[in-house]
Hints:
Elements lengths: L8 H29 L4 H25 L1 H8 L2 H23 L7 H11 L2 H7 L4 H10 L11 H7 L4 H10 L4
Helix pairs in contact: 1-2, 6-7, 7-9, 8-9
Protein name: DUF4405 domain-containing protein
Organism: Phaeospirillum tilakii
Keywords: Membrane, Transmembrane, Transmembrane helix
Amino acid sequence: MTSPTPPAGLDGWLRRYVTQTTTAVGLVVGVSGGLLFFDLAKRQVHSMHEWLGMAFLAIAVLHVVRHRGSFAAMLRQPRQHVLLALTGFAMLAFVGASFTAPAGGGNPVHQLADRALDAPLVALAPVLGLGPDEAQRRLAAAGVAVDSPAQSLATLAATNHTDPRRLLGVVLGGRRD
């Protein structure tokens, strides 16, 4: 038994591709969002997640166009009104919290990492269980020029044109990635 031939033109194209593409791109955006949420492979995933998120938005609009009748019927249901209102309130809570959060608010792990990146190497090294000389040696082995142990990883990253979190990784475990 063969399936009917989809109509030609935009509607035919939408029938053939939009749901499958929405599913594929949505899956990738969801997985990369999970990686970002848990701070896994953030540097490698961030740009891809943003660009594919924009592609997902465009494809989702095409999906709504393709299924406009079903979406119109769904939007008339009271249950959908409640779900849309809850989603809108959640979005406003997140956006509003970012504007009203006191200075220093947010994830304390990120705050700690930011402070570590701004601390002089001579103060940071003992917290990491190293002497300043060992921290400098690890950085030098990774090709980072250190003029003084009074420099912070943020300053060293700026002068060496690299990411300060990468330098923290170098000091912590000798990583060179």
